[in-house]
Amino acid sequence: MKLMIPDHIRAISPYVPGKPLEELEREYGIRDSIKLASNENPLGPSPRALEAIGRGLSSLHRYPDGAGHDLIQKIARVNDLAPENVVIGNGSDDIIAMLVQALIRPGNRVVVPQPSFLMYDIAATAAGAVVDRVPLDGLGMDLEAMADRVTDDTRLIFVCNPNNPTGTVITRTAFDNFMARLPNHVVVVVDEAYIEFAKNADCLKTGIPADLTRPLVTLRTFSKAYGLAGLRVGYGIMPAELAGMLHRVRQPFNVNSLAQAAALAALDDRDFLLRSIRLVHDGLERLYAELDRLGLVYFKTESNFFLIDVGQPADELFEKMLRQGVIVRSMRSYGYPHYIRINVGLEEENRRFVQALETVLNL
């Protein structure tokens, strides 16, 4: 077979997600493992979302609402928007793909921070764009350097706030200065997948209130703070004209009926949201204290995950931790060969992580 695959597609390195917990247990012959590798909500899904899913099971023979009417209306009310400013997707990745499809032609340029969420790069490269990768300044996003890379051919800039995998944020002042430097034809996409966890009072939050006078898109997700990662539902806030273009290219029925029902219910589950945020903040403080006790270098975060310098090849430590039944994420592929990333777990999971880390490092 001789497939005629374009060179820019062959050049893409596929996104490699963390393996499911069950697969790793089978592969390594371990049981009762804990997973702190994928930035998931350790509390599970919103209870109200689970109830809504139960009510929706009997209607699975029907197609979902292709327009996402009720969910879009609720998101608009929560964010003080018009429904015309909201697009829902099969996770935020779906919105990213729509934006690229609507705005990018081969040879256009897209600016992305590096390292950050890999789907910005993958989606742009798949569309034939020239991707301008701008290194972080330390662990933070270098907005000045990103603005410097803009040309007449630049169509999109992706900003991740808080940034994955570093957990750093940008300020409103820095962002406003950045936007002031950009020409009007450049659409800026701010991915706020983890914004609910940010404590820094100066942290940029583009969706509250939404600024719809500029070519700006805010991405939000139900995967993290709301505990619905398995349902894949997210949304974008943007000017109505741009939203209209995305509706022209999005797949019909792109958000399934159970995801819509669960997301609707989750937006009403304020108690669960606050409990999720409080668990992360409390867990971070306890983990920081334990890592201080062990004398390890770590990097404080504005998200539900953070980086730890383990002082040895991260891939090797990943394997050692697996054999202790603790799944973490090696950051070698992100350019940090001695760092791991973990997300906050339940209190007992955090304790088990510290014990396993202490064991494998012989501390």
TrEMBL record:
<feature type="domain" description="Aminotransferase class I/classII large">
    <location>
        <begin position="32"/>
        <end position="357"/>
    </location>
</feature>
<dbReference type="InterPro" id="IPR004839">
    <property type="entry name" value="Aminotransferase_I/II_large"/>
</dbReference>
<dbReference type="InterPro" id="IPR001917">
    <property type="entry name" value="Aminotrans_II_pyridoxalP_BS"/>
</dbReference>
<dbReference type="InterPro" id="IPR005861">
    <property type="entry name" value="HisP_aminotrans"/>
</dbReference>
<dbReference type="Pfam" id="PF00155">
    <property type="entry name" value="Aminotran_1_2"/>
</dbReference>
<protein>
    <recommendedName>
        <fullName>Histidinol-phosphate aminotransferase</fullName>
        <ecNumber>2.6.1.9</ecNumber>
    </recommendedName>
</protein>
<dbReference type="GO" id="GO:0030170">
    <property type="term" value="F:pyridoxal phosphate binding"/>
</dbReference>
<dbReference type="InterPro" id="IPR015424">
    <property type="entry name" value="PyrdxlP-dep_Trfase"/>
</dbReference>
<comment type="pathway">
    <text>Amino-acid biosynthesis; L-histidine biosynthesis; L-histidine from 5-phospho-alpha-D-ribose 1-diphosphate: step 7/9.</text>
</comment>
<comment type="similarity">
    <text>Belongs to the class-II pyridoxal-phosphate-dependent aminotransferase family. Histidinol-phosphate aminotransferase subfamily.</text>
</comment>
<keyword id="KW-0032">Aminotransferase</keyword>
<keyword id="KW-0808">Transferase</keyword>
<dbReference type="GO" id="GO:0004400">
    <property type="term" value="F:histidinol-phosphate transaminase activity"/>
</dbReference>
<keyword id="KW-0368">Histidine biosynthesis</keyword>
<dbReference type="InterPro" id="IPR050106">
    <property type="entry name" value="HistidinolP_aminotransfase"/>
</dbReference>
<comment type="subunit">
    <text>Homodimer.</text>
</comment>
<feature type="modified residue" description="N6-(pyridoxal phosphate)lysine">
    <location>
        <position position="224"/>
    </location>
</feature>
<keyword id="KW-0663">Pyridoxal phosphate</keyword>
<dbReference type="InterPro" id="IPR015422">
    <property type="entry name" value="PyrdxlP-dep_Trfase_small"/>
</dbReference>
<dbReference type="GO" id="GO:0000105">
    <property type="term" value="P:L-histidine biosynthetic process"/>
</dbReference>
<dbReference type="InterPro" id="IPR015421">
    <property type="entry name" value="PyrdxlP-dep_Trfase_major"/>
</dbReference>
<keyword id="KW-0028">Amino-acid biosynthesis</keyword>
